[in-house]
Write a structure and sequence with these properties.
The protein has 15 helices and 15 strands. The protein is an alpha/beta fold and 467 residues long. The protein has one domain: Glycosidases (TIM Barrel, Alpha-Beta Barrel), CATH 3.20.20.80. Strand 14 and strand 15 form a beta hairpin. The longest helix is centred in the middle third of the chain and has 24 residues. It binds 6-O-phosphono-beta-D-galactopyranose.
Length: 467
């Protein structure tokens, strides 16, 4: 039987744009996704799982299933429809209502301030590549700290790596730019800086709570013992993980790290990024006080050296084997023989979570605790003839990852909690609605919720762990 510490937090995760729907309701401003998705014409985030209206049902379900912590995010453009300036009182009131409902159901909110939903008015001005964005984000965060006194746990930014890479290199997030390595690293630096500035503000204001950042970590391994593959894996890790981990948790970039950054940028005939000493001072100050880091882990990457041009094809349909991931100046991802993959070509490798947790603990000893802020399995699902969803594969996936967590805790790594992605089925940014992760199945036509087998399994796990 899986045993975790008595005070271990068992939660589940959500994000505003993926759940709320009601994207044009109560004065909400547009975000970067609205036009991008309209132009693609494949799917929209309305009504998603209608969390804007269904949240009382979702929280009641959570209470019944023993889930006492949920990750939610505040949609910036519900509060500041233009990103700054005019405040929308209906948006402000919505989150007070929502947080109250959570508390009334005995649920602790873990609140993300930026989960991929930059207001459109700021997106068109350059988004995270425009330094002005950092000031506006800090003002939005400051407003939230003053307004939502009921919140204890704050997360600055969700997955800076995903934002920077998918907005600038893979073209899968708006604006859909491809292979802009310099922009990707510049944006990573500005995301590190935005996180730091908000943490420093939080301290200056003496907010009585905790604050951290959430990183997506895909653990990178060389696919062979060959030196060229080892170097490719180092570059891939710098591009996706290390630059952000060091920037937010160490508060500095070593000369060796910057050399690798420069070599990737130069290999793509682009100009090196700009970093000032004042900016570095901000990073350093924040890294000294950060309370926790969240790790979102889904899969690991196995990398080989590659000398050709970039070629990235995203599998956004769940057609196994349809993706290609080769990046000039970095390396190519390959599927390791014998490892299972999801329909979206994500290799399932629980050890990768253990290795990442050990790495964070060793390399960033100043970080007091780690939460797994997302982990889960995306699947195509429909209820069976009895109206049930028997998601055995998901249970296995979660259990195997939690076993890794239990193992590293035994070794002394301070992991404080685990949030399943996702709490209920919802909208997926680049995949729409056929990639389901929820503990609760959602019929997107009727908005009916059905607990999956995994929800019952999780409930039992939580109860057993309390004994
Ligand atoms: C993370 C995001 C989530 C969520 C999840 C699953 O990157 O923080 O918002 O979407 O991944 O990803 P996907 O929906 O692409 O399968």
């Amino acid at each position: 039987m899986l045993k975790l510490p008595k005070d271990f937090v068992f939660g589940a995760a959500t994000a505003a744009y993926q759940t709320e729907g009601s994207t044009t309701v109560d004065g909400k401003g547009r975000v970067l996704w609205d036009q991008f998705l309209e132009e693609q014409g494949r799917f929209s985030a309305d009504p998603a799982c209608d969390f804007y209206n269904q949240y009382p049902i979702d929280f009641k379900n959570a209470r019944e299933f023993g889930i006492t912590s949920l990750r939610v995010s505040i949609a910036w453009s519900r509060i500041f429809p233009e990103g700054y300036g005019k405040i929308e009182p209906r948006g402000v009131a919505f989150y007070h209502r929502m947080f109250k409902e959570m508390k009334d159901n005995g649920i602790e909110p873990y609140v993300t301030l930026h989960h991929f939903d930059t207001p459109e008015a700021l997106f068109v001005k350059g988004d995270w590549l425009n330094k002005e964005m950092i000031d506006h984000f800090t003002d939005f965060a400051t407003f939230c700290f003053e307004e939502y006194k009921e919140i204890h746990f704050w997360i600055t930014i969700n997955e800076p790596t995903t934002l920077a890479k998918q907005q600038r290199i893979t073209g899968t997030f708006p604006p859909g730019a491809k292979y802009q390595f310099a922009d990707c690293f510049q944006q990573q630096h500005y995301l590190n800086l935005a996180h730091a500035r908000v943490v420093n503000k939080f301290r200056e204001m003496n907010v009585p709570g905790e604050i951290g950042v959430v990183h997506a970590i895909q653990t990178v391994y060389p696919n062979s013992e060959k030196e060229a593959d080892r170097l490719a894996a180092i570059r891939q890790d710098v591009l996706e993980n290390k630059f952000l981990l060091d920037g937010t948790l160490k508060g500095s970039y070593s000369p060796e790290l910057l050399e690798i950054v420069e070599s990737i940028i130069k290999a793509n005939n682009q100009s090196m990024i700009k970093i000032t000493s004042d900016e570095l001072a901000e990073l350093e100050q924040a890294a000294e006080t950060v309370d926790f880091v969240g790790v979102n882990y889904y899969y690991s990457k196995f990398v080989e050296s590659y000398d050709g041009p970039s070629e990235f094809i995203h599998n956004g349909t769940g057609t196994k084997g349809s993706s290609k991931r080769k990046l000039a100046g970095v390396g190519q991802e390959v599927l390791r023989e014998g490892l299972p993959t999801t329909d979206w070509d994500w290799p399932i490798y629980p050890q990768g979570l253990g290795d990442t947790l050990r790495r964070i603990s060793q390399d960033y000893p100043n970080v007091a605790k780690i939460y797994i802020t997302e982990n889960g399995l995306g699947k195509k699902e429909t209820p069976d003839e009895n109206g049930e969803i028997i998601d055995t594969e998901r249970i296995e996936y979660i259990e195997n990852h939690l076993k890794e967590v239990a193992k590293v805790i035994e070794e002394g790594v301070r992991v404080a909690g685990y949030f399943i992605w996702s709490y209920q089925d919802m909208f997926s940014w680049t995949n729409g609605y056929n990639k389901r992760y929820g503990l609760f199945y959602v019929d997107f036509e009727t908005q009916e919720r059905i607990p999956k087998k995994s929800a019952y399994w999780y409930k039992e796990l939580i109860e057993n762990n309390k004994k």
